[in-house]
Amino acid sequence: MDEARLKRLEYAADRIEITDCLTRFSRGMDRFDRELYLSAFWGDAEMAAGPYVGDVVGCWDWAVPMHEAGQIVTHHSLLNQTVDIDGDTAHSECYYIFVGRNRDESLWMAGGRYIDRLERRNGEWKIALRTNIIEWGCLPPPMPIPFADVPGIEKNGVSSRNTDDPSYRRPLVNLREPFNPAG
Predict the structure, then answer these.
(1) Where is each SnoaL-like domain found (predicted)?
(2) Helix or strand or coil: residue 36?
(3) Is the peptide bond before 181 cis (omega within 30 degrees of 0)?
(4) β-strand 89-102 against 71-86: which pairing, if any?
(5) CB count, 10 Å around CB of 55?
(6) Strand pairing partners for 94?
(7) How many Å apart are CA 24 and CA 19, to the nearest integer?
(8) Rounded to whole angstroms, how far apart are CA atoms 172 and 168?
(9) What are the CB-based long-range contacts (under 8 Å, 24+) for 77-80?
(10) Which of 44, 98, 165, 179 is most buried when burial is the number of CB atoms within 10 A of its CB?
(11) Tell me: the pLDDT tens digits for 22-70?
């Protein structure tokens, strides 16, 4: 394999590891999985998110009770991402959309960008500094959850803010009976 191709493969592997790191943060927040959330950050990492500035454990301690009191469900969705890698340091800009279904059934949406400095230590990429640039927010009109009234739809599990969520099941199996609404 030529050197140029090998460098592209190494870059691609680093990008995948960095994307996986950013995803651990989002999934950890939405599932209230502290261990998963913390696995995205170095122990000495700094965070600037909304009014919070400090370490990542303090951010967890501030954000989770706020989301637990305010929302039934949260989604931290990751979108476009750029990554500049220079040795064992990378800078990433990742667009996001946050959606929360509030306890009063209203919706809260916000969007912006996570701007991160990541470091590779002992062969592993994690966030060393995160800043959160919030660029817009809105309260869209709520609608009923689609298909919530289908009998037995909950047999494959329901959304949960802990490791009881169906996404943690191994192996994942279907518990619903075959059914085609078209007949």
Answers:
(1) 11-131
(2) helix
(3) no
(4) antiparallel
(5) 15
(6) 81, 114
(7) 9
(8) 8
(9) 77/26, 78/19, 78/22, 78/23, 78/26, 78/114
(10) 98
(11) 999 999 999 999 999 999 999 999 999 999 999 999 999 999 999 999 9
β-pair partners for 53: 48
CATH number given to 3-142: 3.10.450.50
The token pair that represents 178 in the structure block: 């075959």
Terminal Cα-to-Cα distance of the chain (whole angstroms): 54
- Residue written as tokens 């493969």? 9
User: How far is Cα 89 from Cα 118, in angstroms, rounded to an integer?
Assistant: 6
- Residues 136 and 73: their CA atoms lie apart, in Å, by 20
Number of H helices, E strands in the chain: 3, 6
- Cβ atoms within 10 Å of 176's Cβ, excluding its own: 11
Domain locations in the chain as residue ranges: 3-142
DSSP 7-52: HHHHHHHHHHHHHHHHHHHHHHHHTT-HHHHHTTEEEEEEEEETTE
Tell me the HSE value of 9 on the side-chain side, using a 13 A CA sphere.
Answer: 6
Answer for the pair 85, 11: CB distance below 8 angstroms, yes or no: yes
